């Protein structure tokens, strides 16, 4: 019998045992009170690590350093800067990412190859290494530092995204936690984002990587803010075993771990979209009855990322023809006369034919902060859910002057 | 030696010999003075026709009727309504599209199967056939009716898009013309659009279809306004032979025809993007040195359709990291250290490294109504050009209230 998964109030990435974190203001981003832009997440014991990364052909060397650390088999933690993506700066980018990891390793007293590194921010300018060298000593590692770390990775986000859950296994308590940042350049296929996940379970590397891949495909890879994909996307999961619980594939406890990871990543993915640049509404798109799960994902992603759907929902405009258009252009198999369509549980179309809907009640239902779209393709059993956000005038204003 | 291609001042789809056109206001769209929403383009002689169509799985039955007419081998013309897409309305859509073609055929005295039909506008409402039946008799066919026809196909467009060119072949004059409408749901892979092309050359069907496919791939399929793809896209090319000139594949005159078609479609594609919803700037993206032409097209389309590039250019923000991001996510092969990047001829990056650019002069160069981006991948010889437009706050406002 699977154990119940409980959300820990005010949880953070240091909720699991044996993790510390801290952050400081290095001066990489423009100063405002309480701003932090350089953070470290650290495990007191060596961890097993798993990661998924951007598929963009132009990749930040910080991602490369993280991949190398994870491939090395022993990861102790990650250092993250916001404000500068450390991307498209030639060979200097790799040198700087390595030095950043080494600086963190130095203050933590561990081998440099065990530290991962991430960067997020403007592309095409070099990391201000002088500032980072000056600031590295100011980071105080603490078992309560998870919230500060979560703040240090933000760029245009307006709020942190954090969650921790726990479940019992073998009479002990396992904790799993995560934080994430958005909130632009976000589109499926490694949604443009950073997320750090921690657990005090002991998990072998193969199971950890496999279960992370499965969960990311149905969470972070199913969200869209602006259709663009960044050069720096990273999801990093660290398992340090401090709980004394070992989890394996194919066991009830292993399955509970996967369920907990799905819960954590779903929460972070949804919160990331909800905090999309200029966004005020979360759009949840569910596709059922597709020929396959991959078809359902294609269709849900197509609707959740359609600019014309996003702008219509911004205006509470039940222009469902755009949803049909986005389903049709997705590449997923469909038969028009089989399609059923719902907005907020109100049936708009059945068997491919529009239903005479009381338009005012439909518009009224769209005023809230979440809009749910359900498409029943009725040709198979594939199902998937994706998330997007409304596109507002503020999004355009904001993105017209990001560097100027 | 190829003949010179000359632009005809104030040309229209009735500039080629033997074509007539006309339009009327049927009441499908909201009334404003001078508005027309139902048009007919007609050839006095049977034509050879070629077409390219939307690849959306949800297709307007009007497109189906057009495909059937073209497949029939004899097309006399096309009837077009704006305001209603005749899409997602079940079997009634096909019945109505057929009746629309029949009504036109009736007043023109030709076989119904020789008339194509197109619809553009809101998805999910039935064509108001009563209005169309009432209005059909009011359309006056005239050899000067091309401009009226061009107006009748518009939806959110602010101006008509029209051009006619001519060249000499065998001592005679061949004329080729076109009109088109945008200006939303526009993205490569049959850009969402309608375009009608006419010529008085005699061209066999195979060559006509082949050359249209080649030209559409490098013109209409290389533009983007909002990343969405419509259910009604149609490009229809009618060749009626009225000039007395027969053109064949592999001849100098045939090549001139292809060049003329490229000139006409490039003009219409660019004008369509320039008139994109809320757009004030044309963005021209050229990719050179790609591994293949298809890679160059992928990369150019990715940049031209990136929301973050579109919004940055809207604000005259030289945030070229977003261009690099969009190149990298395109799927095209590239090697970072080989990339050169230019905005309006100003070199931003060479050998993958940023050039110290005088930022103010770069911003100044972006104030105009056209912004040119050139990416040199330097790994092969594939080249392509794509077009997009800036994304403005007006675009969002407009698309938040399209049906309400």
Structure description:
Two copies of one chain form a homodimer. Helices cover 30% and strands 28% of the residues of chain A. Chain A has 404 residues and is α/β, with parallel strands linked by helices. The first copy, chain A, has two domains: 6-274, L-amino peptidase D-ALA esterase/amidase, CATH 3.60.70; 282-399, ArgJ beta chain, C-terminal domain (Ubiquitin-like (UB roll), Roll), CATH 3.10.20.340. In chain A, helix 1 (61-71) packs across helix 2 (92-108) and helix 7 (293-304) packs across helix 9. The mean pLDDT of chain A is 92. Chains A and B meet through helix 8, helix 9, strand 16 and helix 11 of A and helix 8, helix 9, strand 15 and helix 11 of B.
